[in-house]
Amino acid sequence: MKVMVKLFIMVFCATGSDASFAFAADFNTPAKGVKSLSRDVNEPNQTGGPSGAIFKEDFEDRLTDRGWAISNGDYDYVWDATAYEGKKSVKIKYVSWIQRTVSTEGYKDIKVKYARKVTNFDEGEELVTGWSPDGTTWNNLEKAADPNWAVKEFALGPEADNNISLRIKFKTNARGEADKYASVDALEITGTATSAKPAPAPAESNKPEK
Known about the structure:
It contains 1 helix and 12 strands, in the order αββββββββββββ.
């Protein structure tokens, strides 16, 4: 028995615990229904209480391995020198975007929270964050050019409630030098549960827009 327990402890310790996108300064429609407050991808909805995490992304792994659509495959990576939490964050360079579809089925009062900063942006260059209920109509959350990490939280509109096709997008318009980029980390989408049904990831979540 002592040998079996010792073997278990040794094993446990060893294992450990739009492709042709043209940038515009704004999304299709102005921000609405927005209130600014200051684990793993595909994690199922939490149904143990009235509210909880619907989706979390720590950007510790390759984007396409975690269901993200990207505008340029050359930038499909994370960079470990700019993390807000953990060891890595996503780095978005030049004129490009990353986008994720998240189902909020069974949830209302949807909020989006994340950390972001930009590096070496010139005047007029910015990180634009937006959301869409269907991939067609887009709403601005913010346009940022802050060189320091800041955590932002926004309440989305009612169209984000109980929606299997909610999109979140981060895009940049930094032209020129390769040392211009935006960093995003610690993304979390939360809501208030309206049913005990978990929200499956839509099949199209890892496909870029045409």
